[in-house]
Design a protein that fits this description.
The complex is a heterodimer of chains A (about 110) and B (about 110). Chain A is about 0% helix and about 50% strand. With about 110 residues, chain A is an all-beta fold. In chain A, strands 2, 4, 5, 6, 9, 10 and 11 form a seven-stranded mixed beta sheet that branches. In chain A, strand 5 and strand 6 form a beta hairpin. The radius of gyration of chain A is 13 Å and the shape is globular. Chain B has about 110 residues and is mainly β. Helices cover about 0% and strands about 45% of the residues of chain B. Chain B has a five-stranded mixed beta sheet, with no helix packed on it. Chain B has a four-stranded antiparallel beta sheet with strand order 2-7-6-5, with no helix packed on it. In chain B, a hairpin with a 4-residue loop joins strand 5 and strand 6. The mean pLDDT of chain B is about 95. Classes of the chains: A mainly beta (about 110), B mainly beta (about 110).
């Protein structure tokens, strides 16, 4: 049973470019969460999505960041016009319902140069 | 969700049991205690969770005090691969936002 799959694992972008991070939840999970971990800090919640719906985006910056979880395909976290401060590890997680155990992927490490 | 307090770091000899404490004195009756760990440059790994009773799985045991104000994660036979930051999180089962503290950095020594 495959776990939460994220790609790419590492991504380097120049300032002003776009970053797209993909996440396929565990089989049977329809609830997806994105967290961000800045260097030497703890994980911070960004957004919670169900298929085709954003349930809670309270932790996501209002500008340049967006997330989707289409009916078909992986969830995408999109960061437009990246800045150095966006350099971080982005973790996707999934669960079978909001109250059940949440499992994490291996993360995507974004470096902005 | 209630806050947790963990020691910042601990050492343990390889092959011995590692006992990681967590205080959650303001925990509510419907809050679960979850443990995750994060090995360097990897994603958080779920270990175990419990409400009132002690729990055991293939990775670890979770001992929760009767008043539920503290708990201990036990890794029965620690290996070098158990070196990681261990996070204790209390969570209402309807709450999907996990609040991460600083955790305990566990170093297993040969």
């Amino acid at each position: 049973n495959a776990g939460v799959m994220q790609n790419p694992r590492h991504l380097v972008r120049r300032r002003g470019q776009e970053a797209r991070l993909r996440c396929s939840p565990m089989k049977g999970h329809s609830h997806v969460y994105w967290y961000r971990q800045l260097p030497e800090e703890g994980l911070k919640f960004m957004v919670y999505l169900q298929k085709e719906n954003i349930i809670d985006e309270s932790g996501m910056p209002k500008e340049r960041f967006s997330a989707e979880f289409p009916k078909e395909g992986p969830s995408i976290l999109r960061i437009q016009q990246v800045v150095r401060g966006d350099s971080a590890a982005y973790f996707c997680a999934s669960s079978s319902s909001p109250g059940n155990t949440i499992y994490f992927g291996e993360g995507s490490w974004l470096t902005v140069v | 969700d209630a806050k947790t307090t963990q020691p910042p770091s601990m050492d343990c000899a390889e092959g011995r049991a590692a006992n990681l404490p967590c205080n959650h004195s303001t925990i509510s009756g419907n809050e679960y205690v979850y443990w995750y760990r994060q090995i360097h440059s990897q994603g958080p790994q779920y270990i175990i969770h419990g409400l009132k009773n002690n729990e055991t799985n293939e990775m670890a045991s979770l001992i929760i005090t009767e008043d539920r104000k503290s708990s201990t994660l036990i890794l029965p036979h620690a290996t070098l691969r158990d070196t990681a930051v261990y996070y204790c999180i209390v969570r209402v089962d309807s709450n999907y936002q996990l609040i991460w503290g600083a955790g305990t950095k566990l170093i297993i020594k040969p």
